[in-house]
Amino acid sequence: MRTSLATRPGDEIFFRGGFPMRSAQAKFEIPAYFAPLELDFVLVRKDPVTNIESIDGPRTNNTRHASTFALPLGMAAGVPAPLGASRLSPERMGPGWVNFALHSATATKVTLILQWTNCAEAPETLELALNPTTHRTGDIWHVALPFGMQESVLPVPVQGYFTDKYPMQTTTTTAVLYGYKCDGDTTQDGWRFHPAQVMFDPRASLLVPPLGPFPDPNTIVPRYMGSLTDVLNDGAFQLAKYRAQDFVVTTAHVRQIPAQEVIYELSVSDFTAHTSAYLPPGQAGTFAGVLSKVDYIVSTGVTTVLLQSVFTPGNMHIGVSSEGAPISFFAPNPAYAKSGGSLAVHELREMVRGLHSHGIEVLMHTVLTYMGEGTDMDPNSASLRGIDPVSYYKVGYSGVLEANECALGAAVLDSKSTATQGLILDALRHWRTAFGIDGFILHSSCDCGDSACQASLHPVVLESIALDPVLGGVGKGASVRVFLGPGRNPTLSPHHFGGFGEVNASYGDGIAQFFERIPGSVGAFMSCICGSANHFRKSRCTSQGHVLNTLTISPKDMSLADLVSELGTRTKLEPRLSGVVLRSMLVCLFVSDGIPMISSGDEYGHSSFGQVSSLSSSLETEPTVFRWDATAKYSEGACMRSFIAALCAFRHRRADLFSAGGNNVSWSGLDGATPNAWNDPLAPSVAMCRRTASTLSRQLRTTTQDVVVIFNGSAELVPAVVGHPPPGFVWVRVIDTSLVFPSDCALTSVTLAGPRGTYLVAPHTVLVLEMAPSPLEHVNPTADLAYVDR
Q: Which residues, given as ranges, of the chain have pLDDT below 70?
């Protein structure tokens, strides 16, 4: 359409840069119901002499000239930052503008798809093609749309509301969803685009299924689309985003120093999935289910909950758990919401804050090296692969996306790419600021042990995390704790050591080999008890909470009960002693320097094959589901939970023993005088260590409340010379794993035998003795035998 530009009468000529200029205008009348739309135009000038037209626009070989100017109507150009969907208006609630920003360097066409529905009505769909002239800045496509205002494009979901400051918009809209269609040049890496597929925003905070079919029959209905509920409402009728300055815990945190921390690892889907959890319909295996069991978690004595990955996973493959390859780093798994996914964000916030209110911190496993969108051989595009695969994924020499051979249906992300690095940093910030997650176990590789696997994080990513103002943190309580998971972790510079902890992947092997009586294992066992100083030195030590010890590596490793069962098979251990070995290994975990971590189910001997306790053997074999009936009152599981609670109480009460980075530990033979032969391959699996309460007191030769731990991994009854306590003090037996409940963890004063103070330690047993001030009426006679309640 051609329209003449007319000058208004009386307009004067003005000068700009020395050139005379005159304004002209053209008038268009467009009905409001056509909005949003964009008016694209070029300026055409006809030479009055030659009658030749010249166009103010880019030169092109096409007969249709590209537009130089674009005027958005009913929408705005938008801004390129931040990426994702966000509010542009300064008001936290009420009508305003929502900005959409998407990174796609290779797409030549991007279409924003919006879908909403009113109750009992078919969904409405709006497809908005973005003009790169106005809506592209570099590699970022962006557009802004109004919502909540009269004749605005976007309605407000029913969860939202307006204050008296704004006019109420009558709406019955249940949700507003959005996604993108991308297309590109097939000769320039654009063959992975599919113009009929709807991709969800990689930074969408909530994913839900589409509301219904699309008007275009060629459009493929996706599995998920992003939801704008949390963006438009900004927390209205939901829990608002986490803000450290506004959040006050009603109960003081139990963990005051790293030495007091005990971590309890669980899977949201498995923790309350069994019928014995006795939850209302729809709560099993959800965030709400975990929150309903917070009293049980507190009763175990732990201070921190570690969630297995709650990212939205890709398609389920046979043998792959729900914590497998994710398709989003921002959205929690909709399957973990009791409302069917529409309130997953709200319920996750509610769970985290419920745990915080009981003094329990929340950590989370994060897998940030691959995505479950399939491979070029078996594509399953849902987001990144159909938006900008070259910028985010690692492309091999043949031009094919590198597949992660250790995770079915996963392709490796390129952590050297600035786009991927920004995605990872934004994701971690999102979980901290939107949900209040206290820390992460960052799996920098796929933990497969395959040296040929390419799924790993670049050191620049870790450096960016350490220096990030949100993740690195400044001030008390502001920083986010980050542990590097087991695997091939990149080498860190010394000035980054203080910012990262690490999971001690070799800890479980060192403890198991000691009880398996493998020759030469005593030295490695002692190193584990002292915090594995051969791996962690200087500022990355146990006293700073940088070492996380675990007997098993979840979710891929076997359970603790399975580990003990296999150990018993190899050593021909009597079945009745398996429970003793299991408790002994747990005691080793709690008396070691570093943060102890147990997995849900360890408190009752959960096993996917082969059982430890007689109670567990009577239960059905279920690979991962937590069995609440195994923890019933007066059951062996309840006794085991009390035993773990006693270990947690000891850890919290005597945190001073585990705050010196292993420097307060001295080792000796069972005679109390002979030094241990660390590297002797013929040394028996017995050892005795003394933890001094204060190094200064030891130098001044004053009596301290020391703790002596005796480890007997052999199959023989052995005497240990502990020595009689000085006047005014008494030995208190804290733990003896050879005894039955409740004697195994009951605080009982003991009298040692003989003139040298000897205690007989049963096979496969760990004994913990604590020196304490004696009561006034206590008399410390010399006895021939140690008092042992067997």
A: 7-12, 14-18, 22, 57-68, 89-94, 118-120, 151, 156-174, 187-190, 234-256, 315-324, 340, 444-455, 473-479, 487-499, 533-545, 554-557, 608-623, 694-703, 776-790
Coil vs helix vs strand at 288: helix
- Look up tokens 């980050």; give the residue: 482
* Global pTM exceeds 0.90: no
Q: Which residue has the tokens 């028996």?
A: 684
Q: Where are the alpha helices (DSSP H) in 468-559?
A: 507-515, 522-529
Determine the residue type at 574. Answer: E
Contact 471, 421 (CB under 8 A): no
Contact 717, 762 (CB under 8 A): yes
Outline where DSSP puts E strands in 623-699: 665-668, 686-691
Whether residue 84 contacts residue 201, with contact meaning beta carbons closer than 8 Å, is answered with yes
Largest CA distance in the chain: 126
Q: How far apart are CA 417 and CA 401, in angstroms?
A: 14
Of 529, 548, 507, 515, the residue nearest 737 (C-alpha): 515
Rounded to an integer, what distance in angstroms lies between the CA atom of residue 271 and that of residue 268?
6
CA distance 110 to 199: 11
What would the two tokens of residue 664 be? 């307060």
Helix (H, G, I), strand (E, B) or coil at 220: strand
* Cα 331-364-177 angle, rounded to 5 deg: 5
CA distance 421 to 721: 57
Q: Check residue 474 and give its pLDDT.
A: 40
How far apart, in Å, are the Cα atoms of 675 and each of 144, 683, 757?
A: 73, 12, 18
- Around Cβ 144, how many Cβ atoms within 10 Å? 21
Is 503 in contact with 484 (CB distance < 8 Å)?
Answer: yes
Is residue 384 within 8 Å of residue 402, measured between CB atoms?
no
Q: Which residues pair with 362 in a beta bridge?
A: 305
The Cα–Cα gap between 343 and 208 comes to 9
Residue in the block written with tokens 């497998």:
324
User: Who's near 375: CB < 8 A, 6+ residues apart?
Assistant: 400, 401, 403, 409, 410, 411
Q: Which two tokens stand for residue 632?
A: 């019933």
> Is the CB of residue 344 less than 8 Å from the CB of residue 286?
no
Tell me the CA end-to-end span of the chain in Å, nearest whole number: 100
* Residue-level pLDDT at 482: 87
Rounded CA separation 166/448 (Å): 55
3 state SS of 521: coil
Structure tokens at 505: 């992947």
Round to whole Å and give the CA distance between 492 and 490. Answer: 6
Amino acid at 376: D
The pair of three-digit structure tokens given for residue 714, joined into one six-digit string: 């052999």
Render pLDDT for 468-512 as a digit per residue (tens, 0 to 9): 888 874 434 446 888 888 765 555 554 454 567 888 888 999 999
Q: Strand 124-129 and strand 109-118: pairing?
A: antiparallel
Nearest to 198 by CA among 77, 98, 110, 273: 110
Distance CA 395, CA 406 (A): 17
State residue 644's pLDDT score. Answer: 94
Q: Which of 667, 655, 515, 676 is nearest to 593 (CA)?
A: 655
